[in-house]
């Protein structure tokens, strides 16, 4: 995994344009990303881009 736990990432543009989340775990389901304070989703790493200010 290139992304590290705690790293900020952009969610996939197709559904979540401009949404930034935080990587909180990785397992066989995918990468668990937290966003909007309370929501969490498992996503594929190839759909995530590192957040750049």
Write the layout of secondary structure elements.
Layout: E1 8-10, E2 20-27, E3 30-35, E4 39-43, E5 49-50
Antiparallel strand pairs: 1-2, 1-5, 2-3, 3-4
How does this model look, in words?
The protein has no helices and five strands. It is mainly β and 53 residues long. The chain has one domain. It has a five-stranded antiparallel β-sheet, with no helix packed on it. A hairpin with a 3-residue loop joins strand 3 and strand 4. The protein starts with 7 loop residues before the first strand and ends with a strand.
Name the features:
mainly beta, 5-stranded antiparallel sheet, 53 residues, globular
Task: Please summarize what this structure is.
This protein is mainly β. It has one domain. 0% of the residues lie in helices and 45% in strands.
DSSP strand tally: 5
Low-confidence stretches: none
Strand residue percentage = over 45%
Gyration radius, rounded: 10 Å
How would you classify the helix and strand content by structural class?
mainly beta
Count, helices: 0
**How would the global form be characterised?**
globular
Helix percentage: under 10%
Main β-sheet description: 5 strands, antiparallel
Number of domains: 1
Strand order of the largest sheet: 4-3-2-1-5
**What does the average pLDDT come to?**
92
| CA-CA gap between termini | 22 Å
User: What's the SSE pattern?
Assistant: EEEEE
